[in-house]
Design a protein that fits this description.
single chain, 296 residues, alpha+beta, 4-stranded antiparallel beta sheet, elongated
């Protein structure tokens, strides 16, 4: 009798448990998965800096302004040592030309000394000229050969210095890595480029929403699912579609305004593509916090 009573209590407990879970499962199936997110360009925001190493660089010229459109490869700025690096290339190029001219002169001398050496070798055999004179002509010929070899080594060294100077010059020219919009400038001409870099650029023709989905909700999220995006201050909602699922579980960066909200949730980032009509409305809202609902 005792065991029957315990079994009956256990069955009642299981029944009550599953009944209590039914509204949750039904709510998930109807309402979807809610999350906080932020607006980002699909290209990401790229922070552009100098290539001067730990020494840093001062800015000499800045060509675009905030809001300007730039193409990939466009020159954005020149650092302060650009003129000096350019002059170093000209010095190296001049040095190469001087050495090449010396080689040309020495080749004429080599040709002459070779003919003299050959002539005196023949004369020495007939006793018309002394062996000592023939040896002197041979020495002059060999010296010309050695001089040309030394000059050619100097030319190779000067060309290597020119290549180094060209690479150093390239570091003073900051170019756009992508086509996009300059959304923020951190340094102006005369200022030192700091830890924030020179400027930030992004392609604003396609926007994403980066959602912070609770780790417990991730099994319900699939690529291709639709979502509604609600931006505070906007009356209309925007449509989006899940494109990428993150791999890392981490602490949430976005917090709700609710003072009782959990500030240490474990989330996974999910990237959704916003519909094209949202671009014009939201391209000035980069990193804006939004609310979203991913449909089941």
């Amino acid at each position: 009798m005792y065991f029957k009573l315990r079994y009956l209590q256990f069955c009642i407990f299981l029944g009550l448990f599953f009944i209590s879970q039914l509204p949750v499962f039904a709510a998930d199936q109807v309402l979807g998965i809610g999350a906080l997110g932020r607006i980002e360009p699909q290209s990401r925001v790229i922070r552009i800096s100098h290539d001067a190493g730990s020494d840093g660089a001062n800015l000499e010229q800045l060509f675009p302004q905030e809001g300007d459109q730039v193409n990939k490869g466009d020159v954005l700025a020149l650092s302060a040592d650009h003129s000096r690096r350019k002059a170093a290339i000209e010095v190296a190029q001049t040095q190469v030309k001087v050495l090449e001219a010396k080689v040309a002169v020495e080749r004429v001398a080599l040709n002459y000394n070779n003919k003299e050496y050959q002539r005196y070798q023949a004369l020495a055999k007939t006793a018309t000229a002394s062996a000592a004179t023939a040896d002197q002509k041979q020495l002059a010929y060999l010296q010309s050969q050695a001089t040309i070899a030394a000059l050619q080594a100097q030319i190779a060294n000067a060309r290597a210095e020119q290549k180094v100077a060209e690479e150093n010059l390239a570091k003073t020219v900051i170019k756009a890595p992508i086509s996009g919009t300059v959304i923020k400038i951190h340094a102006r001409p005369g200022e030192r480029i700091g830890d924030n870099g020179l400027l930030e650029i992004a392609d604003l023709t396609q926007l994403d929403v980066v959602a912070e989905v609770y780790e417990s909700d991730m099994p319900k999220v699939k690529v291709g699912q639709k979502a509604d995006i609600n931006v505070p201050g906007f009356t209309q909602t925007f449509a989006a579609q899940v494109r990428e699922l993150g791999f890392q579980v981490k602490k949430n960066d976005l917090n709700d305004t609710d003072p009782l909200a959990d500030r240490d949730n474990r989330i996974i980032e999910v990237r959704l593509t916003l519909e094209h009509k949202a671009v014009e409305a939201l391209q000035h809202q980069i990193y804006r916090q939004v609310h979203l609902r991913i449909m089941p």
